[in-house]
Amino acid sequence: MRAQHPDDRAPRETMLSMSGLAFMRAMLEGRVPPPPIARVIGYRLAEVAEGRVVFAGAPGPDHTNPAGTVHGGWYGTLLDSAMACAVMTRVPKGSLYTTLEYKVNIVRPIPPGTEIAAVGTVSHAGRSTGVAEGVIRGVADGKLYATGSTTCLIMEAS
Fold this sequence. Notes:
Blueprint: H1 12-16, H2 20-28, H3 36-41, E1 43-49, E2 52-57, H4 72-88, E3 95-106, E4 116-125, E5 129-138, E6 144-156
Antiparallel strand pairs: 1-2, 2-4, 3-6, 4-5, 5-6
Domain Thioesterase: 68-137
EC number: 3.1.2.-
Protein name: PaaI family thioesterase
């Protein structure tokens, strides 16, 4: 399998030609490529349902800070992806979304190499905004590592 190049992401027209839920399902099924950030950060799409998305991954040595613990940006990226993509599952065909703001609360450090699931769940999806919550839990032990919340802007493509 060849390495993914940033230009390998799905064209914008492809995304706009289907609902957000259909697009996320196409990604899960491998019909559209994952975003390049997933390769860099080391996570993959694991589940998709309307209003809910799960990403799985494990932080490695390249994701640690000078103290040797997993960098807070790794938690933030996983939660932003899970929460915002959960909102995406509620976005209609011909529309886009973007993160307006998000917050992360780290509960405990994730030991490098620990497989986690980042779950995003929508609590509101309207015409112009979407709100979601997220958690990062250990796959093997169910430990809570972080929580988050987001507000996304939903807009018609122009």
